[in-house]
């Protein structure tokens, strides 16, 4: 019984640990140029595959580059790329979703059928198709992932916008003669953005994983720019002689994805009303009974 209680207590700490993992990732991404002990692209061919030491805490890769510095700068690369993808995808998705929820009728039907087509295709397949058309490169990767991610935010935005438009205060604004632009920009859009950003937190981990996947395939961020997926593919030929060069970027990427997923789930669950615990419920019932007895 004690072990079960300890397990539940450990699970209760997961959202906090996820927040710490995401916070550390963001901190490393912002302060990477000042936290990295070495230039991530500086080569030392006389110290290739060096073991972890006081000089190089996590060793060096096949070109003698400091692994710790490349891991830290890779966090900045992933953070910037993930932020750009989500910014573009959310801007397009929220605009289309709110317009569909506001106008309704044939406008909603046309826009939502386009969204359905986007949702029917796997995001990675869409990204690969766009990169196949426009070619590899950093900005082409950002464009490809943004085009793959906007339909999900559009669907959520439309659902939230329909709920907002059915609220009594929106009807009151219409009766009072508020202009469509005022209703859209001052009431509908802010309410929709707040709700969609909550769900976008969970998508951040998937976007970071997609960036690493495309870089691993040679279709995303190109060398010598440090990136976790690029570090993985560079270290694969040396898996037996220097396994930590594969384990470290994979482990960091896994922790970031899990952290974002747990953080997004905890934020979403906090917005859902939960029943009171039995102990508190019984206590409130007893207080209500005592109050009724004391009432004249």
From TrEMBL:
CDD domains: TM_PBP2 (cd06261). Gene3D superfamilies: MetI-like (1.10.3720.10). The keyword Amino-acid biosynthesis does not apply. The chain crosses the membrane at residues 16-36, 79-102, 114-135, 196-222, 242-263. Keywords: Cell membrane, Membrane, Peptide transport, Protein transport, Transmembrane, Transmembrane helix, Transport. Its main location: membrane. Residues 75-264 form the ABC transmembrane type-1 domain. Pfam families: BPD_transp_1 (PF00528), OppC_N (PF12911). This is Peptide/nickel transport system permease protein. It comes from Ancylobacter amanitiformis. The lineage of its organism: Bacteria, Pseudomonadati, Pseudomonadota, Alphaproteobacteria, Hyphomicrobiales.
């Amino acid at each position: 019984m004690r072990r079960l209680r300890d397990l539940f207590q450990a699970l209760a700490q997961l959202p906090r640990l996820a927040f710490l993992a995401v916070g550390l990732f963001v901190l490393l991404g912002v302060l990477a140029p000042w936290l990295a002990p070495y230039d991530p692209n500086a080569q030392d061919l006389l110290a290739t595959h060096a073991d972890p030491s006081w000089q190089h805490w996590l060793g060096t890769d096949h070109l003698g580059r400091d692994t710790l510095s490349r891991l830290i700068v890779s966090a900045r690369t992933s953070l910037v790329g993930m932020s750009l993808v989500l910014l573009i995808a959310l801007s397009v998705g929220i605009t289309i979703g709110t317009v569909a929820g506001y106008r309704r009728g044939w406008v909603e039907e046309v826009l939502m059928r386009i969204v359905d087509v986007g949702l029917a295709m796997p995001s990675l397949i869409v990204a690969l198709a766009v990169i196949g058309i426009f070619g590899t490169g950093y900005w082409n990767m950002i464009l490809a992932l943004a085009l793959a991610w906007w339909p999900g935010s559009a669907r959520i935005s439309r659902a939230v916008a329909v709920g907002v438009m059915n609220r009594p205060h929106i009807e009151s604004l219409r009766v009072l003669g508020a202009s469509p632009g005022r209703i859209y920009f001052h009431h509908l859009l802010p309410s929709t953005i707040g709700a969609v950003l909550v769900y976008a937190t969970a998508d951040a981990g998937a976007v970071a994983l997609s960036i690493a996947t495309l870089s691993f395939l040679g279709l995303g961020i190109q060398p010598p720019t440090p990136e976790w997926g690029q570090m993985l593919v560079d270290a694969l030929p040396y898996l037996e002689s220097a396994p930590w060069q594969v384990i470290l970027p994979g482990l960091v990427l896994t922790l970031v994805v899990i952290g974002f997923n747990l953080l997004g789930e905890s934020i979403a669950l906090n917005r859902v009303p939960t029943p009171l615990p039995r102990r508190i419920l019984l206590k409130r019932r007893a207080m209500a009974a005592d109050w009724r007895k004391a009432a004249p």
